[in-house]
Amino acid sequence: xxxxxxxxxxxxxxxxxxxxxxxxxxxAGLGQSQAQVSRxxxxxxxxSLEDVDLLAAHYGLHPLDVLAGPTHAxxxxxxxxxxxxxxxxxLAVPLPPRAQPESAPTVEPPAPDAPSxxxxxxxxxxxxxxxxxxxxxxxxCGQPATLELDGFPQHLTAEECAAAVAAAAGAVSPPxxxxxxxxxxxxxxxxxxxxxxxxxxxxxxxxxxxxxAAPEPVPPVGPTAPVPARPVRSAPGYASGTLVExxxxxxxxxxASCSGEVDMAQAELVKAAIPDVMTLLxxxxxxxxxxxxxxxxxxEILRKKSQKGADDIWEGRPKWRNPELFAAAKKGERIEVTxxxxxxxxxSALKCWLPIGQLREDTSGVxxxxxxxxxxxxxxxxxxxxxxxxxxxxxxxxxxxxxxxTLRLLLDCTRQGLADAPVIHRSLVSGASEALxxxxxxxxxxxxxxxxxxxxxxxxxxxxxxxxxxxxxxxESSANREIRRPDWMxxxxxxxxxxxxxxxxxxxxxGLQVVxxxxxxxxxxxxxxxxxxxxxxxxxQVKEKQTYVLGGKR
Length: 554
Known about the structure:
This protein has helices at residues 4-19, 23-30, 34-41, 49-59, 63-67, 70-77, 87-90, 158-169, 241-257, 262-271, 273-284, 323-330, 345-348, 404-415, 438-453, 457-473, 486-509, and strands at 136-137, 144-145, 148-149, 152-153, 313-314, 319-321, 335-342, 354-355, 360-362, 371-378, 400-403, 423-433, 513-518, 522-526, 542-550.
């Protein structure tokens, strides 16, 4: 007896066969990777109830139809079988083949030699040839099978089951299974039961004798009419719908408990932002490839030296002004400047390379792009007066500890010919991934985008509180008891600074003048910045904070 999940895998295979999808297409529709779908279909990981909902939404079925087996799901897909969505219809749907009563009618395809025989041909007398093995319903897919394994009729592979289901879906109860005489070639009439021609409908002048006595409410599927191909859906899922719903449901729940008072609801949501975002993180890691460490041993360089002190990691926080432009302003030159604000800087920075497990020492002096951590380096000299240094406000020469994001930025500057390569003396690293927080980031970003489009500032404030408090409390903060990863905190923060520097470099390459860069998200530009950056509040856009004249009054 097959389990429910085994039947679900066969159903997925049958639906993919009927729609012409590949695993990559299905994965994109579910918002998952092709590797995840492959492992679930191979039985190495499990299809969850959330996955059933996603599969049902992807194929336009009810979840109960997906769980009812491949024959039922394919039938519902093409309108040949009523859906289980309506409670009245659910009682009339037959059970899976092994659970049916013996008297239940089954759709049996004709014997292999039946098409070539005349409709009124008498059966061969007994004993003239060996009797064929009767075809019983396969225990896997419910379609006829001639082989038996361990006393049960079944196909040998899932591909054979999917092919049998696909063949059965094209031959579901035609009005008259016996073929009628073919019409002349010049006559375009197509009698019911004749071989289908490439036309979507049967003309009204079809032979009256071959028409059914009473019209069927369900359009014919099978030899009498071609089955329209169901279009393969494009990949809709930028983010997991379940995670997005979890965020929006939480907002509605708190807003209802506060009797619609927005200010009161916002205060409650911001207060609960830390446990809420950690719950969201755990939900986003379900089915992930890696199991990250939440409380690995903390290296000495990552420990604060005092209660209000800092550790030894330099994050590269920018604080820079263009000396040439400020000198020219002092001499009386007036320069029009626009202060730009980067949207949700820490939310964008969640896409970064993070170590998975405990950091271990590496003294090879070579950067491994598949690992991440913190590094003791001697940075190169910076000789560009009109472009800020990727190390931010640091002026002292010599060795310093930097995070993974800062080191990757320095190496990128080397590849672009802006500076020499940094010298790596020592590293504390672990195997890394750029996707550890990707599902969380996508859910927060998609929720924020929808809230902005709907003018929902309450949800925008809630999302901001979640990602900002997540970054600020995953280190050694007592406000978050569920994780302690100061290495993650430094890498994410320095990634935000690196993203800001890359925006400045993009403007610089476009011929604009970089006037000032400071904080996490503030960039001052002289020139037509709209030719370089799109304006708006989305993550890939910037917004204007203010304009002023350098050398005059702000």
